[in-house]
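Students often ask why we bother encoding 3D structure as a string. The short answer is that it lets us treat folding as translation between two languages. Here is a chain of 343 residues written in the first language.
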Amino acid sequence: MKVNHRLSVALGYTIPTFVLVAPSFVLNQLHLTQWEAFTFLSIPFTGRVIGSMIYQPLNRVVGVRKGYLLSMVALGALSAVSGLQQSLVLLLAERFLVGVAFGVTTSIAVAAAASTGNRKVMGLVMAGWAFGWLGAAVAYSLVHFWSLLAFAGLIAIPLAPLTVESPQSETRYSIPPLFSILVAFAAFEPAFALQLAPTLLEQEGADVLPWMMASYGSAVPMYFALPWLYSKSRLGLTSLVALQGVSGVAFFVTRNPAFLVLFTFGGLGLSSLAPILASELGAKPEGIGIALNLAALGGLGVPVASSLLGTRQTASLITLVSFVAFSLIINAKGRKSRIDIYR
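And here it is in the second language, the structure alphabet:
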């Protein structure tokens, strides 16, 4: 894959993530109740599911390049409009549509990366989640205000012409196996739970920005290291996963930001294994993005359940169960992956 194509697939996850997560830093400025705030953060994850389901039909109608272009432009426009919106109902509707555009864009990017069969390219794409968070943190450090941060999402529009080259599927519609979706949920659970981190740190009086930047910055190398470790030492990977699970539970119980860095360091990188495991379970390249975005329903459930049942207890329990499940999954014998984990 050429350098410019690698850049485009990486941006296909980075920019949507930036638009999706940037509001996490300014929730207090919206004066929402706790339940409204978590709904605001979570509702795009429902849209992601819709976007992942319609991306294949959309590509057949307008083509991959135009589908990617349209979804990126939509992300920028919706982000800017939300910065002008005062109605909570309309704001939630716009956030839902952001999720739809996210689902389309990232499904195309993941399919393009998976079709290369290269774990480094896939790691670069999946690292877009960390890059997007880092970009949102930097933008927040520069502007500090919700409306200006929302307008920063307009960056998606000039970057939209850097379209992704993704092969068109020969099949009419590719549905990933159910178990591949469950595997993706377990891999993405840290990303879902970490939506709560900025708010929790603020409640403890911690300086959010440096801790979030340290956490997500340290996670970037793990998107490349964990697939390599998966190919070399399942025991080593299992030990690392256990450490991340313990540190995640410790963070939600104590709200100590040092545990946040440790949890994020390896926890986010687990998502780089989701495409490999989904492929081992029989998902085709064009179906892997669907599996990842269908698993995103957890991004709706984890924060909302935490707000209703108690953040400490719920987030800790879900994190513990997910990491135990993922430890079992990575040690189970799977079928040969379409992604060459040795490249």
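Translate back mentally: The CA atoms of residues 211 and 257 lie 7 Å apart. Keep this in mind for the problem set.
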